[in-house]
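Components:
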Amino acid sequence: MKHQPFETWIFDDAPLEDAQQHQLEAHLQDCSACRSLFEADRHVMAIVGHAPMQSPAPGFRARFQYRLAEQRRTRRIIKGLLITAVILASLITASLLVGGFLFTRYVPFTRAVTGVGNLVVQIAIQARLMVRVLGMIVGAFLKTLPQAMVLAAAVAGMGLTGLWLFSLYRISSQPIWRQ
Amino acid sequence: MPNQGQEAAWIAKACKGDDIAFGNLVEAYQLPVYNLCYRMLGSAGDAEDASQEAFLRAYRNLKRYDPKRSFTNWMLSIASHYCIDRLRKRRIKWLSLEDESSSPLAEKGLSPEGSTLVLEEQEAVQAVLKELAPVDRSAVVLKYWYDMSYEEIAATLSLSESAVKSRLHRARKELAQRWMTAETSTSLRGLKDEASAV
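Structure:
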């Protein structure tokens, strides 16, 4: 049995013409599939039509105003952080630009490069010198102490380092939820 | 509901940053917005959250509101779009997390007895609504709960009028078919129960 155009008419919102209405009624008497569909549609639409409007719990407006205030507060914080970040980035960029400009303005490029190289070498030499001086001082101090005492201090130092490493291992191996 | 002059005055004041005026708008339109969200999302908690978010979005975009349009429809449009987005995200989550083979309607079991029949049927309709695609669901709610015209639904959902008509037609057919399937499974279950009782 043909179900068209009756199936389309069943779900059509627009009112049918008289002739169409008669044809549909005649078809529904003969076709049980379309009749079931028609009855189900009318039933569902009737329930939908009688379904009440759901209303929110009392205090909706107050909850909205609280939420709005919270959102504003969060936005203010984010805005403040962004402004601070932009100011910092601008300051760093400006100082780099000005520093770079002054550096290249007063020091020719090749000299600048060799100057930086020299500076690094000088720092390395100074650091090595300082280490040697410190080494000499510590060596002179250790010579004044008895050998057994130096040995005991070295062993104690190693023991403490071992304990520190062991405690680090214990902390890192604990699960997060237990901390 | 406020009259047009009152509504226009509140909107104008709210545009200038008057929170009390916007609060009045929230008070006046909370019911239709909440009901739409409830019919779309199916739970009170989700509806509360979605309707609050819809009002927040309206507050942020109030300057874009065209006074030639109805404020209710504008609010419902914001709420519909928000609910549709939310349902789409939820659907993606469902599809990735679990099998959707079990129908909520089949789980409900429609017993035709007792004084709670109407409530049960309304719950069942809500369960059938849940099965519709988000945009179809929204079109059904706007048409049959808010009595909107095709033109208004089209404007609210950013669709053409013919698309609204075909979506509503398809949705009604799907609702009827699902209802029939649910009733068949319920009567079969009833027969099984009777047989086991005997």
